[in-house]
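Can anyone check this?
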Amino acid sequence: MIGAAAYALLIAACVALTAWLAERILASLRRPRRIAWLAALAASLVVPAWNLVGALPGQSPLEIPAPPAAAPAVGVSKRAIARSAPNAIRSDTEERASPVPQPPPRRLWTRKLIWRLQFAFGIAWALLTAGLLARLFLTSRQLIQRGREWPVRLLDEVEVGVSEDLGPAVLGILRPRIIVPRWFEQEPPGRRALVLAHEREHLAAHDGRWLLAGALLVALFPWNLPLWWQWRRLRLAVEIDCDARVVRRGEAPQAYGSALVEIAARMSPAPRGATGVFERRSQLERRLRIVLASPRRWWRYAAAPLYALTALSALASATFPAPPLNAALGKHNQAHREFLMNLRERAVERSVTARLLANGGPDALAAAAVFMSGPPIPPNARDRYGWLAKAAAKAPNRADLVMMKLTYCRAWKLNCDLASLHAKLRRLDPENGAVWLDDLGAAYAARDPTRINAALTEIGNAQRADSDGTRLVPVLYHALRDIGGADFADAYAWSAGNAGAMLNVEPLVALADLCADRGPPDATRTNACRRALLVFEHGDNFLYAAVGSAGATRLWPADSPEGRAARAIHRRTEYLERHAHLPMPSPAYLVLGEANYFERMVMPILRAETEYPREQDAWRAALIASRVTPDTRILF
């Protein structure tokens, strides 16, 4: 806070210098001087506020929060998720587990001293502001109460309020009027006309309102001394501009100057918030010199260097960087926010996991195992795997839960019996060729042609290749949200992240290398690859279907039924993945907030995944619901 105040002081001083130079230029051009000081008061607030906000990371009010990047939502390719996660378990959780930057350590007494200085400065600021605002309010209230007792008369065809000793001045903001003292009625008519002309010019230019705005700004930042000086210069500039307007109307400068002197000798100082014949007697002499000075045409050309100085001063005021203290404070605040966010996430994880474990159902236990597990291996991986084992034991006929066990046993590198899991999967789902991917990957790593051909043959004997990830998305989502109480974003992010994790990517690289990239070495391998790739054409996700159809287009002749079918599947898969989307964002996002917007974006695809276990079918249904053509006639 103190560093920001010092920076604001420096900027206000630079702006004051710019305004002083600009006033000289305006004077040489015979333009209103108050423009320079009104702009200076505004810039002294806007420039440091803008630069200081930019110096604090994550604090800019112009930043619009983006939807969470955790879930593979609209327009995000799940193949890209798989490609970015070769170990089949990476997801957006890597960002959640990133270490929180710690601020540089300080000694205890230094932190206490800084805190006490900040606290004292804040208290002093609040007291000064409250005192100045109270003084301005009480003065205005007193003038309003006194003004109700002043009679209103028509003096020289001008409606004025007659006070005992206050004036001549203009009082009031909403309904300003001219106030003159009682003795003013006895002044000579010529002098009265000049003074009333001065006050009418104040009324026409709304000078009282500009001065009140400056007074409020000064009261809000009472420690900003350059701001006080700018406001005093504004008061003087308002009077000088008013004098100039009166003289330009044709009044004699000597007579007008004489009227200023005579009235100043008898009147009391104008109250705060009023505009009168003068503001301070010490400035009257300067106003008289300006009024009586003869025009100097050469001054316009002599003032040319002021243009360059003004431009340099304005540039320095606008571009002077925020102090390092505030940038360091911003980093500290950012680290503090991330620390609090991590605390919240851990609290949410404990709460949701406790509810899921208390429920004890198969879906609840599976959801608890993968919720906020963290990459690549969570610290309580064995406990989580135990929850998966309990879920599979409670539903012994569900192949998707056994596939989850197999996936996370492999990903978390646990000492579990993979052979028994493979055997159980083959018994529960014999038509799923994906259960032979691990055998293919091991044979490929060992460069064993016999085992490779055996694995390809087993895959080719199946009917499809399913990871069961898409099938589990709505199951885990409803368990996390309905049982665990997780919000929509977290529930969908972790259920969809599990779907990406269940893709067995590494053996697919072996399949592509053996059957498509290098090409089969003999007829036996060619036949095995053809049948295996046809199986993967009917996989339950974009990645499996794309790998199978792309490989099949190379191994089968283009005019064969299998080749034509492979090209059609590949064309449709590419089209769906490239064009799958939901309704575009609307300005309602700013009103509804991030969570509601994200929910409206994802709910159609979630409903489709509930009805269709294959990812391609689910996204095709979402396209149809979004009134987008689900297929393409463009040849591949």
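Reply from J.R.: I decoded it. Residues 54-109, 581-595 have pLDDT under 50 and may be disordered.
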